[in-house]
Amino acid sequence: MDETNQTDKSNMIEVLESIPEQIAEAVKLAKDVKVTEPIKRIMVAGMGGSAVSGDILKAYLKDKIDVTVNKDYFLPELVGKETLLFIVSYSGNTEETISAYRTAQRKNMNMVIITTGGKLEELSKISKTPCIIIPKGFQPRAGLAYLFFPMLTVLYNSHFIDNPAEDIKNTIKALKNPRFKERAQDLAEKLVEKVPLIYASEKMGVVAYRWKTQFNENAKIHAFHHVFPELDHNELVGYGNIKAGYHVIIIKDDDDYVKIKKRMDITKGLISEAGINVTELVIKGECFLTKLFSAIYLGDLTSYYLALKYGTDPTPVDVIEKLKKEL
Fold first, then answer.
1. Against a cut of 0.85, is the pTM above it?
2. Using 50, 70 and 90 to split pLDDT, how confident is the model at 115?
3. Backbone angles phi and psi of 3, in degrees to 5
4. How far apart are CA 280 and CA 196, in angstroms?
5. 226 to 50, 97, 124, 210, 292: CA distances (angstroms)
6. Which residues of 110-160 form beta strands (DSSP E)?
7. How far apart are CA 123 and CA 120, in angstroms?
8. Of 24, 57, 100, 178, which has the fewest Cβ atoms less than 10 A away?
9. Residue 47 to residue 89: CA distance in whole angstroms
């Protein structure tokens, strides 16, 4: 859960269609921000729609740099000055993230804040912490490009990663393909009155998780996710006594490990034998960043179209607002 601004854009489809432009703008917002101190690891502190940007960063930089995501009020005792901490809160008022910021401040950690304003912007001015101000008016989950790409840019500016410009260019180009909307509409039709179960490889697990949370927040339904190979050691057995109307979505990266691909094929067959429909999606792209955001974009659109089929406004999250008022 991440807090929102009061001026949320109501037309979710227009927001989704503008993601390529959001990516280009997001890169520019961080063009002058860098860290000069020696850093050994990266941590992202955030909640809900803001924190998923850290999950994606971790997936994208896997095997290149150590990235952890902190979704809590406090930071681990082990982190210190050799950790670069991104404080990510769309609203700037998320209480868990502000608490994490205060902990980091006491530890004198290197920090970069990404927010639209709020309390975190105020605190950044007092402490002189670098702060990247992103556009207001979105639900946090719909502002993903503005939350993720500034982090990537800061890491490049600070010489922690290679230049991602070509990957970003490929991603922007890929997301302009009109076929995404067609595929999303077709899949949404299959999911009406079903509980989506989203499966992917470990390296694409963040995509499955993003799909799950987008079904929660946009379509206002329950959805669940798991990853290969672990799900073959537990969740697969659950198809012995089916107690709900499921539809399984298997998200494949064409570069998944051969053994994972084999597991996916066998698992698909076993689930189908249990009488459950399975949709298999093969994600392709020029680079891993393009694959990640192509798959995420397809899920965002699918959850949007499913919301429409249920006669649900995908934008507001009233129950979260109710919870915050009672905290």
1. yes
2. very high
3. -70, 155
4. 13
5. 21, 26, 38, 12, 17
6. 110-115, 131-133
7. 5
8. 178
9. 7
Catalytic residue among 217, 225, 226, 247: 217
Q: Can 17 be counted among the known catalytic residues?
A: no
Which residues neighbour 100 within 8 Å (Cβ) at sequence distance 6 or greater?
A: 45, 70, 72, 73, 74, 75, 85, 87
Q: What does the DSSP 8-state code read for residue 161?
A: S
Q: What is the DSSP letter of 107?
A: T
Q: Which residue has the tokens 């799950």?
A: 212
pLDDT tier, 99 (very low <50, low <70, confident <90, very high otherwise): very high
CB 85 within 8 A of CB 130: no
**Annotation says 262 is catalytic:** no
- What span, in angstroms and rounded, lies between the C-alpha atoms of 174 and 23? 12
Query: Does the annotation count 189 as an active-site position?
Result: no
Rg over CA atoms, the chain: 20
Would you list the DSSP string of 2-26?
----TT--S-HHHHHHTHHHHHHHH
Cis peptide before 316 (omega within 30 of 0): no
Catalytic residue among 14, 193, 233, 326: 233
The C-alpha atoms of residue 201 and residue 187 are separated, in whole angstroms, by 20
126 secondary structure, DSSP code: H
